[in-house]
Specification:
It is built from 8 helices and 8 strands. By secondary structure, the protein is an alpha/beta fold. The chain has one domain: Rossmann fold (3-Layer(aba) Sandwich). Helix 2 runs parallel beside helix 7. It starts with a helix and ends with a helix.
């Protein structure tokens, strides 16, 4: 099956954080506060995905207050932090959302993402993911982590579903 065919049934995107939503760098200020840089186009992409009636989730091995802040800002309520073994948490998210694995896309970059990438209908690797992740993914993105990979994924899926043009119409006709 082609990646375009796989994308047609996706209703939920779940993503890792470090190395996907961010470039993978972890910055601490002098007070020990963790800082992360998120790409603004990912935020609009998530909003477009949600406007299309779909769900978005975050699943990360680390725990960070700033991730919760960003999720709240974007209206993401499916957030699981502190799960190095991501597969049980991913299964819980699917059950909570009442979706089958075929209806889910997962975006990752490192070895801890592999079990989920192999379980879902559409496994996505960022361009700078480790070799093992890129080899197992259904889609390997053009962009690296933190460079707008969420937006690239959402555009790819919505275009495969022939929904992109209608969603962006409001920005084209002003």
């Amino acid at each position: 099956m082609t990646s375009e065919q796989l994308c047609k049934s996706v209703r939920l995107i779940i993503t890792d954080v470090d190395g996907v939503l961010t470039d993978g760098g972890i910055i601490f200020d002098n007070q020990g506060i963790e800082l992360k840089k998120f790409h603004v186009r990912d935020g609009l992409g998530i909003k477009l995905w949600q406007r299309a009636g779909n769900s978005f989730g975050i699943l990360t091995a680390r725990t960070s207050h700033i991730v919760q802040v960003r999720a709240r800002e974007l209206g993401i309520d499916l957030v699981r932090q502190g799960f190095e073994d991501k597969l049980p948490a991913a299964r819980e998210i699917l059950q909570q959302a009442s979706l089958s694995p075929e209806q889910v896309c997962y975006i990752g970059d490192d070895l801890t993402d592999l079990p989920v990438i192999k379980m879902v209908g559409v496994g996505v690797a960022v361009a700078d993911a480790v070799d093992e992740v890129r080899e197992q993914a259904d889609i390997v993105l053009r962009k690296g982590g933190g460079q707008g990979v969420i937006r690239e994924t959402i555009e790819t899926i919505l275009k495969a579903q022939q929904r992109w043009d209608s969603l962006i119409q409001r920005y084209l006709t002003s």
